[in-house]
Amino acid sequence: MNWSELYWYRITPLHIILLWPFSLFFRLSLACKRLLYRLGVLHSIKISVPIIIVDSITVNDAGKTSLVIWLINLLKAFGLRPGIISRGYSENYGSPLAVTISSKSSVVGNKSLLMAYQSKGICPIWIGHDRVKVAQALLTAHPECNVLICDDGLQDLRLQRDLEIVVVDSSKQNFGNGLILPAGPLRDSLSRLNKADAVVMNEKSSKLSINAENQAKIFHMRPGNEYFVNLLNPNNHSEISAFKDKFIHVITDINYSHDFLDQLKYLKLNVRSHSVIDNYQFIKEDLQFPDIEIILMREEDAVKCLDQANEKFWVLHEETAIDIRLREIILKKLREKFMDPKLLDILVCPLCKGPLIYKKNEKELICKPDRLAFPIRDGIPVMLEEEARTLPAEEEI
Ligand code: ZN
Residues near 225 by Cβ (< 8 Å), separated by ≥ 6? Predict the structure, then answer.
């Protein structure tokens, strides 16, 4: 049990005397900031492409990373070119930085590295303290990106957003004592959920109902199939049953070892556990066992030792099933945004990164050097080479 669990899941005299006044101050400062933005004293900054905020209302991830991965796959499938921006981790005060699976967790943080691993390099990920600068840096490096997902930043009103999705872990434990930081785990009051465009309830464990004014904007996220993925070769999957007669060494962060081992026990696996401290940096000697057959890790821990992994390293992957209605909310908003010709004007060719010519009647975006016409299908520009029409030599542009 870490210190947060001791304080955030109960109410003691310490909460009332010491922490609650700080929580009140935190809440007031949030309200003041919102008011200053509403009155125009503080100004939010508009980024040239649509911004989708994905955040949780508590200090926990609550399933946010899984939702971001689902979202980038959705946007890619519709021909969009997403990018991910994030603050990374609190100690990261440096200038904007690109994250890849080769990045060091000590530099970019575990969460960013996990996102790079799970997204399989299908879109750029940039982190940094100033989200506006991070968004601008990503778009400079990747001008083909036409929508950005901000993996946090619900309260950072400086970054103008087009859509807010808040993830809520529906287990009672997630809300703790129901108090706002620092007395409890909430980063804002639960009434903030009413202002979001969509609330995604992650129903991994016991359910908790929330009072949202509009129940139609509540969507559900449920765990799907579980299977093992080889760390070195992520295309190599294995059924749980294939590991049942093998001897498995399990390495986990000590804060999560209890839950992970319970999960493996439920799957009837024969394991020997080795726990490591929080944010542990692995060295080669940590990962050598005499009777080694399988080393099994959580994805969050495995990304920290990618450079020391061999074919015996596996991770447990859990698919996520998300309410299909959420897709419509997101696409509807993006269709509205792409109705603006100014946004279509800034799109570039994903191949040569050059400007495109917007042909309104034909609903196409033309790249002159590549002689390709990218279709605008149902209001969404489909920026995929395989979907583009090759212009015949006689067709004038
Ligand atoms: Zn081109």
Answer: 318, 319
> What is the DSSP annotation of 88-122?
--TT--SS-EEE-TTS-HHHH-HHHHHHHHHHTTS
- DSSP letter string over 21-58? HHHHHHHHHHHHHHHHHHTTSS--B--SS-EEEEEESB
* Ligand 1: centre distance to CA 55 (Å): 35
CA of 386 to the centre of ligand 1 (A): 13
Phi, psi of 109 (to 5 degrees): 90, 155
Tell me, in angstroms, the distance from the centre of ligand 1 to residue 376's CA: 16
Rounded mean pLDDT, 61-89: 92
CA–centroid distance, 365 to ligand 1, in Å, is: 10
CA 341–ligand 1 middle distance (angstroms): 19
pLDDT value, residue 124: 97
Q: 227 forms bridges with which residues in the sheet?
A: 317
In which band, very low, low, confident or very high, does the pLDDT at 280 lie, cut at 50, 70 and 90?
low
Q: What SS3 state is found at 183? A: coil
d(CA 141, ligand 1 centre) in Å: 16
pLDDT, position 206? 46
Average pLDDT of the chain is 87
In this predicted structure, the answer to whether residue 146 has a pLDDT above a threshold of 80 is: yes
Q: Find the 44 Cα to ligand 1 centroid distance in Å.
A: 33
The domains found in the chain, sorted by start residue, are 3-222 (3.40.50), 224-319 (3.40.50), 339-390 (2.20.25.10)
Distance 349 CA to ligand 1 centre (A): 4
Which range among 205-219, 298-312, 318-332 shows the weakest confidence by mean pLDDT?
A: 205-219
